[in-house]
Amino acid sequence: MSEMTPREIVQELDKHIIGQQSAKRAVAIALRNRWRRMQVDETLRNEITPKNILMIGPTGVGKTEIARRLARLANAPFIKIEATKFTEVGYVGRDVESIIRDLVDIAIKMTREQEMKKVGHRAEDAAEERILDALLPSPRPTGGGFFAQPQEEPQKPADSDTRQKLRKKLREGELDEREIEIEVSATPMGVEIMAPPGMEEMTSQLQSMFQNMSGGRTRSRKLRIRDAWKLLRDEEAAKMVNDEDVKTRAITLVEQNGIVFLDEIDKVTQRSEGASGSADVSREGVQRDLLPLVEGSTVSTKHGMVRTDHILFIASGAFHLAKPSDLIPELQGRLPIRVELDALAVEEFVRILTEPDASLTEQYTALLATEGVTLAFTPEGIEQIARFAWEVNERTENIGARRLHTVMERLLEEISFEAADRSGETISVDAALVDKHLADLAGDDDLSRYIL
Ligand SMILES: Nc1ncnc2c1ncn2[C@@H]1O[C@H](COP(=O)(O)OP(=O)(O)OP(=O)(O)O)[C@@H](O)[C@H]1O
After folding, report:
1. In the chain, what are the domain boundaries?
2. Which residue ranges does the record assign to the Clp ATPase C-terminal domain (predicted)?
3. Residues 162-184: pLDDT tens digits?
4. Ligand 1 atom nearest to CA at 316
5. Of 17, 18, 21, 61, best ligand 1 pocket probe by most atoms within 8 Å of the beta carbon
6. CB–CB of 109/78 below 8 Å?
7. What CATH number does domain 6-113+250-340 carry, 3.40.630.30, 3.40.50.410, 3.40.109.10, 3.40.50.300?
8. What is the CA radius of gyration of the chain?
């Protein structure tokens, strides 16, 4: 659990997202409240539910980015889902509980990766032994035991001279390209088991039944040592990680720390674009379906039951036509914190291009540096890019900061293509260069619509 104070959280978010202070503050408080909740005594703790957030703002201004970065800071499992997905043809009636199931899958993956990292060193040692065993015939008189299985040996034999030499070479990477034959566990059968809704727990039982049937079988593979090493390391790490532990921890992680980002919530209100007759019913139906999740219910997943009471929900929408008050009252009540995000103008675009960690200009500069080309952005050049992106947004469709990606790609297309032949050059991205590459698009709305 993150122990960062709201101020620290906002400072961290500032490294990636320009402006939008009230949204940053709201999510920072929500995160800190989780920590606070864990400090109060247990009876009270169970009563305290998160104050969910409704983010209101046009597309591409950082709503998702704020939530995603927050999740990363908090090491929280995170899922983004479009509320409208549940109104699509073919999806009608698709149970919204799948959001939680997907979130649990994400948490399992996160937890397993963390656990594998923890046993990393031990796994690397074990992999090294197995490679040495494959390189050196086993010292024991076991007949054809060329591929010894160290995990079954009660004690490690002392290194012989040759083994020591090989170990040294192996560590220095001298043997990387050499081929060896190793025994690896046969990949589990490609059986994907789908259980009917509500009976997801059955899937994991069936899955493990199938896995037992394939029962620890191995097959031998010929691989370069470099590849074999990775494979064996992962295999050893997987053996050291306890799946049941991972499951339990992942479920706790979801229950206590999970974040669900519900995008386009405004589109499932009655007043949303193109709303008519029967569509209204299904839109409101989606809100009704979502309500139990947000209010707190138990969802059955293939890894176990998950309570949703303490999951943080961040709903978001542009609310151009609909208003938050068009949501069903119960849902409005469950999204008590309202924050508005501002539309972005030229000034913000300039900052987005240059200030965040790994900003777009930094990314392109680094990419072209690999070709020996130095990109030098001048302040006027950046200003011009920002202005251009803003104008296209105004004239065609406002897609917020996303426009910067398409504009930058277009601007640097020629340079990217030729970079390999221009090693050693320094290219100044100034106002003149920006004009030269983008001028033909500047006056042509139709062309802009297609290209940018
Ligand atoms: N204020 C900002 N600062 C830095 N980058 C931003 C900002 N706003 C948007 N971006 C960048 O623009 C892209 C799109 O932003 P984001 O996904 O947050 O949009 P959004 O507001 O959630 O829109 P939508 O509701 O359509 O999903 C991201 O790559 C993000 O990095």
Report:
1. 6-113+250-340, 120-240, 346-438
2. 344-440
3. 777 777 877 887 777 777 777 77
4. 25
5. 61
6. no
7. 3.40.50.300
8. 28
